[in-house]
């Protein structure tokens, strides 16, 4: 990876035990230590988008009692909580960070202003982009694609719990084959669920490569940020 500027998208579930709820301090601190070590290996500039699924998913709770818009708003607030947790862990590890939120929470985070985000990256601060897009009906995958384009990232990295993209779910199908490289059309036509179709289309339309890799495997975050090629590239 010759990338200088990376946007890393992770799910909220990465911050807790599998099937767990909320934030596990041990998981978050380990994640922060890997980030610290990884960015210490080179000149990479790192921005991050974290989902909120460890607290709730707006689309899942939406129903007759809670409408989709309210559910999505609640989900965006969950991403702010996760960003604050990651910020605390990174700063405890000695990494300077900034949280920028699409939803105004002035006592907790700066508002998302594109030029401000770029300036923080230039100063080698890890930028945590929270609050989704600030609008309902958009996932954090789409947020990640949008923000990656806005900050002129070289690659959008998707941290998952498997080694990349497979022909089927490797946890369910032992015959699933690993795919080292794909095109955006492959992902859309084969309905490979690496990110939602809106996010993939946005990256395709703007020629932004997506790198899907296993961030649960010990040391992979460090290797990725240090420049090692991991997982599957979508180009």
> What value does the Rg take, in angstroms?
17 Å
What is the third-level CATH name, the topology?
A: Carbamate kinase
Major sheet, described briefly?
9 strands, mixed
Overall shape: globular
Share in helix:
25-40%
Q: How many distinct helices?
A: 8
The assigned CATH architecture is: 3-Layer(aba) Sandwich
Total strands: 11
Helix/strand-derived category reads alpha/beta
Give the strand order, joined by hyphens, for the main sheet: 4-3-5-2-1-6-10-11-9
CATH evolutionary superfamily: Acetylglutamate kinase-like
The tally of domains stands at 1
End-to-end Cα distance: 14 Å
Mean pLDDT: 93
Summarize the helix and strand pattern as letters: EHEHHEEHEHEEEEHHEHE
Task: Write up this protein.
The chain has 235 residues and is an alpha/beta fold. The chain has one domain: 3-Layer(aba) Sandwich (Carbamate kinase), CATH 3.40.1160.10. The protein contains eight helices and eleven strands. The strands form two sheets. A nine-stranded mixed beta sheet has the order 4-3-5-2-1-6-10-11-9, sandwiched between helices. A two-stranded antiparallel sheet has the order 7-8. The chain starts with a strand and ends with a strand.
